[in-house]
Amino acid sequence: MSLLVPLVIVTSLYKADAQAMLGTAGRGISRPYVTKQHRFERRLMLGVGLGGMLFVPIFKTITHLPPYMGMMLVLGIVWVVSELVHSEKDDAERQKYTPAHALSRIDTPSVMFFLGILLAVGSLQATGLLRDMAESLTRTVGNLDVIILLIGMASAVVDNVPIVAAAMGMYDLQTYPPDAKLWEFLAYCAGTGGSMLLIGSAAGVAVMGMERLSFGWYLRRISWLALIGYVAGALTYLGQYALFG
């Protein structure tokens, strides 16, 4: 619903443009020729990468080690597979396919930003300020669903990673056990609420740099659609929970 409602609105607003695009779709698009070997290599690396990300929570559950150790293990596996797949290429061609080349393009300032935010959230949790904030919101707002909706909206400004980290410090697992309504609803709100602003997620910041999007353009054209989709999805979840528990 979070996707469908804005999509219907956009389709109705830009119906003429959509028809024009459909009219040119039959002309076809020229694509570079890809050999079977290259296609196999692409699919293999994609499968190893996605499988590795899915393996990380399994690794943590089995070994009880920190998730970053699972990620480092997966990175090593991807590195080995990449070296084996491209072993027959010359050094100049193989270089651009190596994990070392990919790591050299990491946005280090963004990584440091998230590290600083998480350290700040950890400090607030250690001093008890997050728990005081949760109690203050409970006294002021009262309704927990409304509080989570507001937290999701705040993720458009603060980013969803520190917001979720802060919420985990505000509400403990003894009061709200795993798979409780609070955590499921928080996952939705924090995950989609950040789309209301271009700076609300790391992906948005990356797209802003890649596509040269301006904050004002996004605010005028996309933010209100994201807000409608956010509310539609939230109401759908609450309705499902009220009906099925």
In short:
With 245 residues, this protein is mostly helical. It is built from 14 helices and no strands. It folds into two domains: 35-105, no CATH class; 107-245, no CATH class.
Sum up the structure in keywords:
245 residues; mainly alpha
Task: Assign a percent range to the helix content.
Answer: over 70%
Order of helices and strands, N to C? HHHHHHHHHHHHHH
Q: Note the total helix count.
A: 14
Strand content: under 5%
The quaternary structure here is single chain
Largest sheet: none
Number of strands: 0
| Total domain count | 2
How far is the first residue's CA from the last residue's CA?
A: 19 Å
Helix/strand structural class: mainly alpha
Unreliable sequence segments: none
Shape: globular
Mean pLDDT: 79
User: What value does the Rg take, in angstroms?
Assistant: 22 Å
Mind explaining what this structure looks like?
With about 240 residues, the protein is mainly α. It folds into two domains: about 35-105, no CATH class; about 105-245, no CATH class. Helices cover about 75% and strands about 0% of the residues. It contains 14 helices and no strands. It has helices spanning about 5-15, 15-25, 35-65, 65-85, 90-95, 100-105, 110-125, 130-140, 145-160, 160-170, 180-195, 200-210, 215-220, 225-245. The mean pLDDT is about 80.
